[in-house]
Design goal:
The structure holds two protein chains of two kinds. Chain A is mainly alpha-helical. Helices cover 74% and strands 0% of the residues of chain A. Chain A has helices at 2-13, 17-52, 56-61, 74-81, 93-123, 129-139, 144-157, 164-187, 192-200, 205-213, 218-234, 237-242, 250-260, 267-297. The longest helix of chain A is centred in the N-terminal third of the chain and has 36 residues, at 17-52. Chain B is α+β, with helices and mostly antiparallel strands. Chain B folds into two domains: 6-235, 3-Layer(aba) Sandwich (Rossmann fold); 243-355, Nucleic acid-binding proteins (OB fold (Dihydrolipoamide Acetyltransferase, E2P)). Helices cover 23% and strands 34% of the residues of chain B. Chain B has helices at residues 44-52, 94-104, 109-122, 138-150, 168-185, 196-202, 220-225, 230-235; strands at 6-15, 18-28, 33-37, 59-64, 67-68, 79-82, 156-160, 188-193, 205-210, 213-218, 242-249, 254-257, 262-265, 279-284, 289-291, 300-310, 314-321, 324-331, 341-346, 352-355. In chain B, helix 2 (94-104) packs across helix 3 and helix 2 packs parallel to helix 4. The chains are: A mainly alpha, B alpha+beta.
């Protein structure tokens, strides 16, 4: 009887060989699933990259996932510098520049205002503050299509229709809702005693904001910048609606480029153009993605 | 250092129908150490915020140094505050944290650094000046928070439960240190705590609060030896004061303890104020009981010893008198044994009587 008990307790205390094998198998299974899923996710991107580096002959004869036999950057050069978009044949580069001219100010201005708004909503009580914040939150849920016509009217009144500053304005207005929400939700996690201490120390609105708050806000600043940058960069609807001709962003130009090609479809050029249009957002995610995750998690767990 | 007297005049505060503070009236002299003590939710922290100017009050006034501070911003009240969570600015070094208020008042940098350095030496944190709060231990953060208050050389220091985030050992050390600082600077301090030991050890004046009402305001001795009511008697002191229900008999000369077949004389201080037949509570602190020698002239009770708890310096004894439980505190070495009945002398010169209905001291 006592012998039996000992064997049982021994089995409980040190995991047997069976247990160890099943643990290793479990681990292989998890990694296996992750590899398969990652491959499925990456396949379109790899296919685009490979196709853009092939000649049309090779595309016609080969598999869409096969590695290019003769690497060529001709397609990339062509769409960047000399492809015909509509009636002009200057490639994507001008529109690529336009996108930067839109994205950089739109991101900086909306993040700046979002930070200020968030600070006010998190720490200052005034009449109707909850209602105002509710309205701003509501702005996050307004579908883009609904604002197109009134916005077009507004831009007309402001004499900004069809211009880059006009597009910047549209993106700032639309982005402020999101950035305000991000910053406000981040700032409410900061202990109220810090603001009280600052008040006793005699720090005013700007001193608290610039000296105390901003230096500890970089995670949420990164989140807002990435959010705004990718959102504005990838925007097509506002771009196609409010920009005309040479002030169009790269997304609209990409669409026009793909639709302009005559005769045979130049898949390699289409893919190269799409890669060029997507590159900045890919780079920003690779460079700053970990801050994005960290910023989204900030406040969820203390410390 | 310039110091100021502080007067809290009939302060009321309410949110709608909810009264948070009711007619609080306290005044202290220059250099006093006032402790606001009470259970959580008693309004002590709110009162401190009102003094600081961080919170509004409904009616009443605060004067510092004889001048009303009505409508003044916190920075204009010449006060400094130490918070429970320390509330250090995370992105600034210790030096910048301490010097921030001086920077905000546009003091030139060399003078500022000199003041910061002096405070850092006083608190022995000079070696930490270049670090950030995240790199400090709890005790070091506490010192920085105090440094931030000290550097302003304010008229009044406000402390909001500054020690409650520290471990027990550090808390006792810092307690002594704050008291030393008070003696050295002669500073006027208002200190909020829920810890009655902190209140007793540090204060020159204690204000005991409950449910927004000031229960008693007095010196630590007043509060401990002559509590104004049953709440103060049981809140201050550990183990708390024993309260025995009794009835006045014998033409106001005797006390018949209810639930036990025992009599004691009425404490001298209450003789003229307690009519025969009145229901009272007899308050006896555990240390006012002692093992009776055969020749004692004090009144005695025969008590049954239920539990003996040696703490080191003292022995706590749980005693029984009929239905009543009584806690006693005896010096180490006292010879008591569990299960035996022993004769205890009661120091009735100190004992307190409370009205059984109102709970107010007679």
């Amino acid at each position: 009887m006592s012998l039996q008990l000992d064997a049982e307790s021994a089995a409980i205390l040190s995991p047997g060989i069976d247990l160890r094998i099943s643990r290793i198998l479990g681990r292989y299974f998890v990694y296996g699933c992750l590899v398969v899923l990652a491959a499925i996710f990456l396949a379109p991107l790899i296919s685009m990259l490979f196709t853009s580096l092939k000649s049309m002959d090779e595309i016609r004869s080969g598999n869409i996932l096969s590695f290019p036999k003769a690497l060529t950057f001709e397609a990339w050069q062509h769409v960047w510098g000399s492809a015909c978009i509509g009636v002009t044949c200057g490639g994507l580069k001008g529109y690529f520049g336009n996108s930067f001219l839109i994205v950089v100010p739109a991101t900086l201005i909306s993040v700046g205002f979002g930070a200020l708004n968030g600070f006010v909503f998190a720490n200052w009580r005034f009449r109707g503050d909850h209602i105002l914040f509710g309205l701003i939150l509501f702005g996050c849920f307004i579908p883009l299509q609904i604002v197109l016509i009134p916005m077009a009217g507004l831009l007309g009144v402001l004499h900004l229709a069809g211009t880059i500053p006009g597009l910047v304005l549209v993106h700032v207005v639309y982005g402020i809702c999101f950035t305000t929400m991000f910053f406000r939700n981040y700032f409410v996690t900061i202990p109220a005693e810090i603001f009280k201490a600052a008040r006793i120390d005699g720090a005013g609105f700007w001193a608290v904001f610039v000296r105390i708050l901003l230096p500890i806000s970089w995670p949420i600043v990164m989140v807002s910048i990435i959010w705004q940058f990718t959102g504005v960069w990838n925007d097509f609807l506002f771009g196609v609606s409010f920009a005309a001709g040479s002030s169009q962003p790269v997304t609209v130009a990409l669409n026009n480029l793909v639709n302009t090609s005559t005769g045979t479809k130049a898949y390699n050029e289409d893919m190269a153009a799409a890669m060029i249009a997507a590159l900045p957002t890919i780079i920003i995610y690779v460079a700053a993605g970990r801050y994005f995750l960290r910023g989204l998690m900030a406040g969820a767990v203390k410390g | 250092m310039k110091m100021a007297n502080l007067a809290i005049n009939h302060i009321n505060k309410s949110f709608g129908n909810l009264t948070v503070l009711k007619d609080i009236d306290i005044a202290i002299e220059d250099g006093e150490f006032l402790v606001l003590v009470g259970p959580s939710g008693c309004g002590k922290s709110t009162l401190l915020s009102i003094i600081a100017g961080l919170d509004d009050h409904t009616s009443g006034s605060i004067t510092i140094d004889g001048k009303s501070v009505q409508g003044l911003e916190p920075k204009e009240r010449d006060i400094a505050m130490v918070f429970q969570s320390y509330a250090l600015y995370p992105a600034m070094t210790v030096e910048q944290n301490i010097g921030f208020s001086l920077e905000m008042s546009k003091m030139p940098k060399p003078e500022r650094l000199e003041r910061v350095g002096k405070v850092a030496d006083l608190l022995q944190i000079r070696h930490l000046l270049k670090r950030r709060p995240g790199q400090l231990s709890g005790g070091q953060r506490q010192r920085v928070a105090m440094g931030r208050a000290l550097v302003r050389e304010p008229k009044i220091f406000l402390f909001d439960e500054p020690l409650s985030n520290l471990d027990a050992k550090l808390r006792v050390e810092m307690r002594t240190e704050i008291k030393k600082l008070h003696q050295r600077l002669g500073a006027t301090i208002v200190y909020v705590t829920h810890d009655q030991i902190e209140a007793m050890t540090m204060a020159t004046r204690i204000a005991v609060m409950k449910d927004g009402i000031l229960q008693q305001f007095g010196t630590p001795e007043d509060i401990y030896d002559r509590p104004a009511n049953v709440f103060v008697a049981t809140f201050m002191g550990s183990p708390p004061m024993n309260l025995l229900p009794a009835v006045i008999v014998d033409g106001s000369q005797g006390l018949s303890i209810q639930g036990a077949d025992a009599m004691l004389p009425v404490p001298f201080s209450a003789v003229t104020r307690a009519p025969q037949g009145k229901k009272v509570l007899l308050g006896i602190r555990p240390e006012w009981l002692s093992l009776a020698s055969t020749s004692t002239y004090q009144p005695t009770l025969d008590l049954y010893v239920e539990v003996v708890e040696p703490t080191g310096p003292d022995i706590f004894v749980a005693l029984r008198l009929g239905e009543r439980e009584i806690m006693g505190r005896l010096p180490t070495g006292s010879r008591t044994r569990v299960g035996e009945k022993a004769r205890f002398a009661v120091d009735l010169s100190k004992a307190v009587l409370f009205d059984a209905e109102t709970g107010i001291a007679i």
